[in-house]
Design a protein that fits this description.
Layout (H helix, E strand, L loop, with lengths): L1 H21 L5 H21 L4 H11 L10 E5 L2 E6 L2 E5 L5 E7 L1 E5 L2 E6 L2 E5 L5 E7 L1 E5 L2 E6 L2 E5 L5 E7 L1 E5 L2 E6 L2 E5 L5 E7 L1 E5 L2 E6 L2 E5 L5 E3 L1
Antiparallel strand pairs: 1-2, 2-3, 3-4, 5-6, 6-7, 7-8, 9-10, 10-11, 11-12, 13-14, 14-15, 15-16, 17-18, 18-19, 19-20
């Protein structure tokens, strides 16, 4: 086991120490039992993943990374990786010791196959491999129709799962409508396709369905758009 091999130097030092203790001329049996018990406790704690200083030191030895050279306040397991905490900040390392997310965030959680991060009052998103999908500048990020709905102040936008901007963050409302996205800004409505193309510009007071096409209204005038965004009846 890689962990056992990495712990060999530590175990060797411990055995040497316990051997020296056993040679003491007094209370021999007590020291022997205590030494063996201590060895078992430390070894079990390290190998089982207990969040102790010994476990931290062992994990650092296994990783062999400069970033993991100091002791952390907490090390835990998150979706197959190591979630670490130092002071009030969190970071994420792979099982092989590679840094996925730097230790500079107040919160890290798992969201739909990626990692939701929080710094101060802002949220962002990292991929499982450590790429930034959504920059950490939004007040809210939630999973929506296969992508991510973001909010900044009072405006909403939409990102794809891979981090492409589908709808810019400038609308008061985004909803799913007939396989497309209905957007609203102030008192005006528009329509975006799933891929982010503008089907109907955001300048109408109302958009509704009529026989598979889109009936739009502006003031007291109406017009008709097809599903591809072509104006049928100007």
């Amino acid at each position: 086991m890689p962990i056992f091999n990495a712990l060999k130097p530590l175990i060797k030092i411990m055995n040497s120490l316990f051997t020296s203790i056993i040679r003491l001329p007094f209370a021999r049996k007590t020291w022997v039992r205590g030494g063996i018990l201590l060895s078992l406790v430390l070894s079990t704690g390290i190998l089982s993943g207990c969040k102790t200083p010994a476990h931290t030191a062992a994990l650092n030895a296994v990783k062999g990374q400069e970033e993991l050279s100091g002791e952390f306040n907490q090390i835990s397991f998150l979706n197959g990786n190591y979630l670490i905490k130092k002071d009030k900040f969190f970071g994420l390392y792979s099982k092989s010791g590679d840094c996925i997310i730097p230790c500079e965030f107040n919160q890290i959680s798992f969201l739909n196959g990626n990692y939701l991060i929080k710094k101060d009052k802002f949220f962002g998103l990292y991929s499982k491999s450590g790429d930034i999908i959504i920059p950490c500048k939004f007040n809210q990020i939630s999973f929506f129709n296969g992508g991510y709905l973001v909010k900044k102040d009072k405006f909403f936008g939409l990102y794809s799962k891979s981090g492409d901007i589908i709808i810019p963050c400038k609308f008061n409302q985004i909803s799913f409508f007939n396989g497309d996205y209905l957007v609203k800004k102030d008192k005006h409505f528009g329509l975006y396709s799933i891929s982010g193309d503008i089907i109907i510009p955001c300048e109408f007071n109302q958009i509704s369905l009529l026989n598979g096409d889109y009936l739009v209204k502006k003031g007291n005038k109406q017009s008709l758009y097809n599903a591809d965004g072509q104006e049928i009846l100007p």
